[in-house]
């Protein structure tokens, strides 16, 4: 039976909501297939506002990969703002996709990509609006299989009761295999119903189905055991790794929204994974090993992407972009190719030590010159050893001085507060560093109007990192350190220095809730549902987040079980403790992580395995993978500029 | 250096775009189409594009105008063709001419609006419009970024008539938008699927109103607010407005084509 668009019901509501254009779809390069011409149908959700979700690379890649398969259909859906949610409830309009405006309940799969745990309540809103039972146990063969992905899927236990399955790691190949399983199961006449479908996914070893695993708890609240509760289901679930990035040049045609989004540019992932070994960084731990895209692969993706999108800026994306083995050649040759076309290049994350100003100058040659951003992460040399961020203040001063001397006016520095072993003094050193940056910058540039912005995030211990055992810093301590830091920034006798330093930070409360959701187990699920029932939505947005709603729900739901918000967050774990994600295999040896945690406490640093011998983190042998890096020594073609005023040359216009 | 003036339409669900959305879509389409755009100088170069007014968010239009500067000469008709192909369906380039002497903005004296009011009986609408025209000043409230402000919506209204017709019949005019009828619009565009089918066709009142460009601008919403003020007219569902034409007012309340002068200069 064909599925009808709900747009006729939605349309009269749109003049009554803010930014209606985000709900109409019609993005350039979007795909709308005939429902009846396909067998396997996916709805892909990014559980945040459209403006945040649309540029998400993960969703964009899977959307294109799936739609390239003839009998597979994929459409996208995003969280609707409370104004539209209210109207949809009043008028009985279900959660819809923005492509075909089809109701979510009609799809086979609902894939939800979680970059952050603060999107959990938004998933519940979408399920509820779609008429899909919140609890996986209540769903029937007629409901979509709800599948979680993204970094948060490395510990999906807090949402285990609400999802049917989770995939850890890279999704490109996983979604194709899952589609194959659904297609075969449907062709056979759906034997064994939903249970059999999920079992077939689980027995691949790469799809986690939480309900096939049982946890038992000790009287003191700790996990006693975890394991499968039926045959055909593996003990542990392995993450997925896509090895050859050049074989997966997605997105080929980036989605270009009509509405404004948070990233007004196209992105090309220049490598995946990072082995710098920053101990706080979950992304760097769970995406190993490093796999580079070749310079030619990057060049081809950029040209087709610009032709298909018309963007004025290209982001060279990765966890530490200046670390690509041929980053100098890439930026120089791209700058040559796009000379005169007003096409800017940007590196969203750069390390001080991997960066040089030539690179920055190439990046801004044909486009806009925005600020430069560096991430020392810790204010003192000592704390940088604890977190394994090997940057000296001297390096930083040298780099920013060169930047200011070259005409850059603004430098942004990222730090974290609440790190393990941190003292007030470690945080106060951020002020000293920022002031030294301004002093050195004034000398280098010969001007007084340069600026330095200090941006500070609260540290949240994450699963599968050496800090997974650490006690999270309580919000009062974080807030008090940030207050002292602000005073220190403004305390200099030379008041003009403080005026050139901007400070950006949030209070520590959302971080503690993120901490609960990051390292929580299945018992935390009822807290999420209680918060959602009390009106919790868009928890990643300060104007919607309510700390009190979370603490109230946590007290009511957790304390009767002998655990608490503090138990899950500010409590340090022991080596023996069974962690909620021990059965989920990121490849990292738990022993290695523990040793790295001990090294952190001893302020001992760890090198990068790209340039030093393997230090046995465990990933490559466990996953059958290896580091894939250049240099290739190859060149981008063409090397001459491609157009005038546009990166595209149109023969129709230049013809006489 | 060449300057091209374009007339374009904003149709169907694309009417929910804001002016900024349209501007971004144009800049990107110009790049995709390989148009040799001129850019401003400096640290943050911008393409040289001048926008002449803009229909508000939620309002469709058959008569929007923009001026683009190029670094190489191109044939305006070809530009219109490649740019239209590069733009999303619903943002449709209708005409391109090389700029002649004189500014374009000052040729925009007034707008001709077509406003569909599903669920409003034409007789009721006619009564309300008569009351409006009989009133000299009508203060309406408008929400702006800085809060509420009052504007007098009445003096800008040059002419207003009520038509009858089924929902979605925005093409009944003939006063300068001949393309409307035969330009294909995607099948599930709102004007095809309708606003709310529960209202019988005969109870859709249509207001045609010519409004003078003033500061602050009086928009279709303000005209409807004025009808609420003078006659307590409350449409049960949101109205659908379309700008049919912009131009200089002639003596009998019609609008002259703002690109006519450029077209003449091009021929001569």
TrEMBL record, chain A:
Gene3D superfamilies: tm_1862 like domain. PROSITE patterns: RADICAL_SAM. CDD domains: Radical_SAM. Pfam families: Radical_SAM, Radical_SAM_N2. Residues 260-500 form the Radical SAM core domain. GO terms for molecular function: catalytic activity; iron-sulfur cluster binding. This is Radical SAM family uncharacterized protein. It comes from Actinokineospora terrae.
From TrEMBL, chain B:
Residues 179-188 have a biased composition (Acidic residues). It comes from the Bacteria. InterPro entries: DUF2344. Residues 3-162 form the DUF2344 domain. Residues 165-197, 243-268 are annotated as: Disordered. NCBIfam families: sam_1_link_chp. This is Radical SAM-linked protein.
């Amino acid at each position: 039976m064909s599925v009808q668009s709900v747009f006729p019901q939605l349309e009269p509501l749109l003049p009554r909501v803010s930014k209606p254009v985000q709900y109409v779809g019609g993005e350039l390069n979007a795909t709308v297939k005939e429902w009846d011409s396909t067998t396997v149908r996916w709805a892909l959700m990014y559980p945040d506002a459209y403006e945040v979700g649309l540029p998400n690379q993960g969703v964009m890649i899977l959307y294109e990969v799936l739609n390239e398969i003839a009998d597979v259909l994929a459409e996208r859906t995003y969280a609707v703002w409370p104004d539209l949610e209210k109207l949809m409830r009043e008028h009985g309009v279900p959660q819809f996709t923005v492509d075909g405006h089809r109701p979510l309940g009609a799809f086979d799969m609902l894939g939800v990509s979680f970059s952050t745990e603060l999107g959990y309540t938004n998933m519940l809103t979408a399920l509820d609006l779609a008429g899909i039972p919140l609890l996986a146990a209540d769903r029937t063969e007629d409901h979509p299989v709800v599948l979680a992905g993204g970094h948060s899927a490395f510990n999906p236990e807090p949402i285990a009761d609400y999802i049917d399955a989770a995939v850890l790691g890279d999704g490109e190949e996983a979604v194709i295999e899952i589609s194959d399983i659904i297609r075969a199961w449907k062709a056979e006449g759906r034997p064994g119903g939903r249970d059999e479908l999920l079992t077939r996914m689980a027995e691949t070893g790469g799809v986690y189905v939480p309900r096939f695993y049982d946890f038992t708890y000790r009287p003191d609240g700790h996990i006693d055991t975890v394991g499968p509760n039926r045959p055909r289901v593996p003990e542990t679930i392995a993450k997925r790794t896509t090895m050859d990035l050049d074989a997966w040049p997605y997105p080929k045609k980036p989605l270009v929204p009509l509405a404004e989004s948070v990233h007004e540019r196209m992105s090309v992932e220049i490598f995946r994974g990072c082995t710098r070994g920053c101990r706080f960084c979950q992304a760097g731990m769970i995406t190993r090993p490093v796999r580079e895209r070749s310079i030619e692969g990057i060049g081809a993706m950029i040209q087709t992407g610009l032709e298909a999108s018309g963007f004025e800026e290209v982001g060279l994306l990765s966890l530490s972009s200046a670390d690509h083995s041929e980053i100098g050649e890439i930026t120089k040759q791209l700058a040559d190719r796009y000379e005169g076309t007003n096409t800017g290049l940007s590196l969203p994350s750069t390390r001080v030590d991997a960066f040089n100003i030539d690179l920055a100058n190439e990046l801004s040659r044909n486009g806009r010159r925005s600020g430069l951003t560096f991430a020392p992460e810790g204010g003192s040399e000592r704390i940088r050893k604890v977190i394994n961020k090997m940057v000296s203040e001297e390096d930083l001063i040298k780099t920013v001085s060169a930047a200011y001397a070259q005409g850059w006016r603004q430098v942004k520095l990222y730090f974290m507060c609440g790190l393990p072993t941190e003292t007030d003094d470690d945080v106060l050193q951020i002020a000293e560093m920022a002031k030294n940056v301004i002093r050195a910058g004034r000398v280098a540039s010969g001007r007084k109007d340069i600026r330095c912005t200090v941006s500070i995030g609260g540290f949240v211990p994450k699963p599968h990192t050496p800090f997974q055992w650490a006690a999270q810093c309580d919000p009062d301590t974080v807030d008090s350190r940030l207050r002292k830091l602000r005073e220190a920034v403004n305390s200099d006798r030379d008041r003009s220095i403080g005026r050139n330093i901007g400070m950006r930070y949030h209070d520590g409360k959302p971080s503690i809730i993120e901490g609960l959701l990051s390292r929580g187990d299945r018992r935390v699920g009822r807290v999420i549902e209680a918060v959602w029932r009390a009106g919790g939505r868009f928890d990643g947005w300060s104007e919607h987040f309510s700390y009190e709603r979370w603490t109230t729900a946590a007290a009511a739901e957790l304390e009767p079980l002998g655990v608490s918000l503090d138990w899950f967050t500010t409590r340090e774990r022991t080596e023996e403790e069974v962690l909620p994600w021990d059965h989920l295999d990121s490849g990292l040896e738990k022993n290695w992580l523990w040793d790295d945690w001990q090294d952190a406490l001893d302020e001992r640093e760890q090198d990068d395995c790209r340039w030093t011998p393997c230090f046995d983190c465990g990933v490559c042998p466990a996953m059958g993978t290896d580091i894939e890096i250049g240099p290739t020594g190859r060149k981008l073609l063409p090397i001459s500029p491609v157009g005038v005023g546009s990166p595209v040359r149109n023969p129709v216009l230049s013809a006489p | 250096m060449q300057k091209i003036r374009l007339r374009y339409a904003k149709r169907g669900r694309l009417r929910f775009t804001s002016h900024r959305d349209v501007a971004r879509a144009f800049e990107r389409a110009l790049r995709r189409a390989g148009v040799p755009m001129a850019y401003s100088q400096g640290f943050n170069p911008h393409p040289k594009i001048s926008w002449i007014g803009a229909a508000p968010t939620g309002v469709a239009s058959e008569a929007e105008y923009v001026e683009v500067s190029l670094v190489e000469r191109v044939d305006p008709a070809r530009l219109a063709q490649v740019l239209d192909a590069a733009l999303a369906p619903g943002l449709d380039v209708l005409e391109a001419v090389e700029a002649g002497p004189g500014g374009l903005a000052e040729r925009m004296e007034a707008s001709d609006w077509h406003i569909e009011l599903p669920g409003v009986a034409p007789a009721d609408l006619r009564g309300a419009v008569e009351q409006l025209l009989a009133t000299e000043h009508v203060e309406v409230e408008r929400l702006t970024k800085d809060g509420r402000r009052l504007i007098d919506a009445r003096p800008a209204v040059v002419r207003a008539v009520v038509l009858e017709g089924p929902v979605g019949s925005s093409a009944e005019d003939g006063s300068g938008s001949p393309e409307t009828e035969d330009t294909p619009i995607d099948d599930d565009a709102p004007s095809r699927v309708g606003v709310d089918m529960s209202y019988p066709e005969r109870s859709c009142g249509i207001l045609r109103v010519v409004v003078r460009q003033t500061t602050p601008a009086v928009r279709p919403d303000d005209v409807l607010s004025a009808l609420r003020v003078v006659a307590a007219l409350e449409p049960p569902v949101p109205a659908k407005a379309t700008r049919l034409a912009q131009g200089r007012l002639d003596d009998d309340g019609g609008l002259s084509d703002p690109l006519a002068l450029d077209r003449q200069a091009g021929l001569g």
